[in-house]
Structure formats: structure tokens, C-alpha cells
């Protein structure tokens, strides 16, 4: 007879809850405790995959969704698209937020597994590879927006949109650009920065510190104001919003003193007095495709397949003029 969590609890003296968290890689479990529990599980012949399959013998027509922030306009659009696509398929959604915290993501994954959801869509965060990998062994899981742990993901390919944006700036005579990256510990921030470094060979490229908040974007833009850039490109929507704040507060004219390209086609960019050119990754499409891929995997009892979706460049008035830069002011 196969060993159970109760057997491991009796052998180690830990609670079943602690054992479950240790085996799932929860970051709040110490390395010493995790090692003790994993050793006991191995010695007792515990088989987590078989155990999980035994538990999942019926459908609940519910999927779980874990995103970083329910109030962030970017993730709100993705979440709404997931919910709508699932509803059209007759499936309910349970949505929660990780706040970019690996422990909260691990808690959310554990809670969703206990609720016996049929599958999970999650935005990964740094430091949570182990809980994600463990969850994927027990439940169909597909990542969205970012890649992690070699798991299937629905993400955007930055090259089409960002490449078109660079060609647009080059055609207007720009030779020096500033770039504000996304977070340095996310696959999206890393891949977009790597593309910029590779593709912007016709420009003097000034790279500021990356991040994911409006405050960080403000600070990064202020750094770049001391360079000779004539155009600013942001690789993250909230960083772009903060950079716009820095321009307005510093008297830098967007579209006159400085060409400006944001990321993601949000209202905050479209509805400016000088509408902002953007690289867009079609957030609702990410949500729809991730949901379809997950539901297909659930229906066929298979592993979800990852997909890379193209990005697009939408030129507007913020990049319509020839370069002036900040030195003329």
C-alpha cells in the first residue's frame, strides 16, 4: 500500500499541513524541515503524482486564476478576459492576487488545489518556481504574461512591436534613445531589455533602472533626463505612467521636447493631451488564449501547450515630430 501524508506525519512528527507545504516547496518552510520531510517521503515510498491523480477523479467546472494585483489596469484586463472566456465555456473562475509575493502565490496555489479546481492560470513571481512545479504535477497549470520553471506559458513576443517602434524612431531622425525596462527579475523585463540591446544598434542607448511601479518609472525617467536622448521608450506600462509624470512635473514636453513610447494600449496613454505611441501586447488576447489552452488540456487530460503572441506598435502624436531633445530648453 502506498504511503500517505499521514504516514510521513507519524514518521517525522510534523503536521500534515506542514508536510504538504514542504513537499510543494512553500517558501515559508525552512530548508532543514523540508529536507527532513523529503527524506522521510522517499524512504516511505510516497508517490505524490499517484496521490494527486487519485484525488482528481471528477470535474468541478471551476478554474483558479492567480494574478499579481486585481486593481492594476493591465492585469484587470487579463483577468476580465479569462473570466469571460471561461464563462462562455460554462466554467466558473476563482480569482486571487499574489501581490508579487512568492509566499502568497504558494498559499494561493495550495488553496486552489484544496478547492479541487480543474486547472489553474497563474502569473509567476520570482522565487516561486518550486510551488509552481509542484502544482503542475497535480493539476493542469498554464502560466500567463511571464515564463518560469520551464512550464507552459502564454506570453507576448516583444520583437515585432518593439522592432517597429525602433524603425519608427529611426525614420524620424532619432539617434539617441532612453529605455526604461520592466522588472529585472521577470522574464518579460529580461526579454524586452535583451531585445532592445540587440536591436537598437543604430542608436546611442541609455538604459535606466528597471521596475514595475509608477514611482520607479518616475525615478528612472529623472535619471534619463541627464542624457542626450531625444526619445524615451518604456518596457512596462506602470513604468511608462511614472515616466509621463516625470515629464509633466519637469516641464518636459511629450511630443515636442521628447518623443515618448509607452507599453500596452491602456486608456492612460490613449487619452493624454498628446496621445502616446505604444507597443501593445493585446492583454485580452493573452487571457483568452491562456483560458482556451487550459480548458483544452483539461478536456483532453493532457499538459497545456504554451504560445507566444505577437506585439504591435501603434504610432501617435507623441512620436510624430522630428527630434529636439532636452538640451535646447
TrEMBL record:
Sample GO molecular function, one term: transcription cis-regulatory region binding
Acyltransferase in keyword set: no
Entry keyword annotation includes Ribonucleoprotein: no
CDD domains: HTH_LacI
HTH lacI-type domain: residues covered: 3-57
InterPro entries tied to this protein: HTH_LacI, Lambda_DNA-bd_dom_sf, Peripla_BP/Lac1_sug-bd_dom, Peripla_BP_I
Keyword annotations of the record: DNA-binding, Transcription, Transcription regulation
Protein's recorded name: Transcriptional regulator, LacI family
Organism encoding this protein: Corynebacterium camporealensis
